[in-house]
Amino acid sequence: MAASITKKNFSCQYYILYMYVTILLIVFLPVSLQGQEAEEASCKSSEDESCGCAATSRDKAAYTKPVEGEGGAEAPEFDKDTTRTVKSSATTRTNQMVFVRGGDFTMGTDDVRFPQDGEGPARPVRVDSFYADVYEVSNAEFDIFVKETGFVTEAEKFGDSFVLENLISEEVKSEITQAVAGAPWWLPVKGADWRHPEGVDSDIINRMDHPVVHVSWNDAVAYCTWAKKRLPTEAEWEYASRGGLENRLYPWGNNEMPKKEHRMNIWQGKFPEENTEEDGYYSTAPVTSYKPNKFGLYNTAGNVWEWVSDWLSVRHTTELQVNPKGPAKSATNDKVKKGGSYMCHKDYCYRYRNAARSQNTPDSSASNLGFRCFADKLPQGVGEIKVVIR
């Protein structure tokens, strides 16, 4: 009888332990998997709503054959003096900086459009004061750097870079046998670099005041170091882009076209077949284009993506962060870029918002990827632009 009772007690205890473990698995396993899925999502681009810019990471890009007769328009003639290629002098300096007084702001957003990008949640951040380049680094400024240092960009070393198909001549296109899988409008073009944005038969003679492109994160760091500046943190960049406006979509507010006026260089028309150029430009615009935000910065929305110093993370605390610099490393080996580009459009790649972000590996380059520099103090010889906050 005693043995029977002991056996029953053991069975009961075993059953209780079994149920306890089962409950733990039911409660905590989905949470663990959800976190894993969120981390893995950072590796993926949203192909149904993306220009595929994150897919152009060097050594990560998957390729397919170019689609004959689809996805591209006739290449624009950049060698002509048109509204999209304003001639400029290489001696016109655009390396001025503006002092941005630090403060508190809300970084990110709770109105998340691309969860896989890690653009949410909205969170309190405090940054110290800094100096910011008024303009994106132009071809003219980068040319001064290269002539003084003999610097060779990574695109030049690798021998190729990614270019939007529409911008490439038929002669160059005829020699290309690969396109980026899921984003076939992106083609790896031999000889594409900062001097030859669309390949070997293109140049920047009439685009010295346009932003330099085909510059990797590593290249951008080298330039900023030479200029006695640095890349901004993502928090500094977003604080500067918002221009003191709290919880606004764009650097000037929530209206994409105030008084029906274009404020940025993005895509108009059906991507990638047609760009109507309603904002005045097919691809890049001069760095001095449009109106600045209230801090005096030009083109933090659209035109070209801008590198920041942070490694990518898609998880953020909602606690107050002071001068955050991002994680010590990235599981995907990606650096963050901000601001969107001339390829963005609200219908498929709504990433020209202040809170939006994307990523590429540090050695990646493309025809819509540039940068601007920040600094803790004004470098000697660099002009400061005084901005009156209204």
Automatic annotation (TrEMBL):
- Write out the transmembrane intervals: 12-33
For the keyword Transport, the answer is no
Lineage of the native species? Eukaryota, Metazoa, Chordata, Cephalochordata, Leptocardii
The region called Disordered is annotated at 64-86
**Which PANTHER family has this protein been placed in?**
FORMYLGLYCINE-GENERATING ENZYME, SULFATASE MODIFYING FACTOR 1, 2
The protein, known as: Formylglycine-generating enzyme-like
Query: Domain Sulfatase-modifying factor enzyme-like, which positions?
Result: 94-373
State the family named in the UniProt similarity comment for this chain: Belongs to the sulfatase-modifying factor family.
**Any GO CC annotation of this UniProt entry:** endoplasmic reticulum
Q: State the Gene Ontology terms under molecular function.
A: formylglycine-generating oxidase activity
What is the species of this protein?
Branchiostoma floridae
Q: Which UniProt keywords apply?
A: Membrane, Transmembrane, Transmembrane helix
